[in-house]
Amino acid sequence: MSMFCAKLWIDQRRTLWITAEMMADLYNHDLYSRDVAEEAIRKYNDHIERCNRAIEAGQHSTAMLGTEGDQEGWRAKLTQVTEERDRYLRELDAAQKELKTNSRTVAELSLRLDNVSAKPGTNGKTPSSIALNSADPTVVRHINKLQEQIYAERETNKRLKGA
């Protein structure tokens, strides 16, 4: 009988513990929901207030307070961002031109290397290589791109190491 009473007591404690956990979860969810709802209501009220001010300003044909200063600030910011964009575009164009010249140089060097390796060596045997003229141009471009990336990464590593 005491074993039965102990089991009932343990089961009741477990039930109370699980119920307490569920109530805590419900309470936390309620707090979260209220916070989200208050934020949404605040955003909605701010939006409606701005719309009402705009409508009133339109009806009275007067400018909204602070609008002129805001417009000048935004115009200044816009010109600053436009100048920065133009500078980046110029840098991008310069980098693309340099990349094209580098890829042409690498392709020419690859062709020269192929021509040199195609000539018979001192022992009369030529190394097995594929002529770049007959190779797939996309593969050659891919190889050249990878070589340029390796070179750029090495330069970046040198710069970061301070060497």
Main pleated-sheet profile: none
Radius of gyration, taken over Cα atoms and rounded to an integer in Å: 37 Å
Indicate the mean pLDDT.
Answer: 83
Roughly how many Å apart are the termini?
84 Å
Task: Provide the β-strand percentage band.
Answer: under 5%
Q: Give me the number of helical elements.
A: 3
Report low-confidence residues grouped into runs of 5 or more.
Answer: 124-128
Give the overall silhouette: flat
**SSE topology string:** HHH
Helical fraction equals: over 70%
Supply the helix-strand structural class: mainly alpha
Number of strands: 0
What does this structure look like?
With 163 residues, the chain is mainly α. It is built from three helices and no strands. Helix 2 (67-118) crosses helix 3 (137-161).
Question: Which characteristics define this entry?
Answer:
mainly alpha, 0% strand, flat
Detail the topology: elements first, then pairings:
Elements: H1 2-60, H2 67-118, H3 137-161
Helix pairs in contact: 2-3
Please outline what is shown here:
The chain is mostly helical. It contains three helices and no strands.
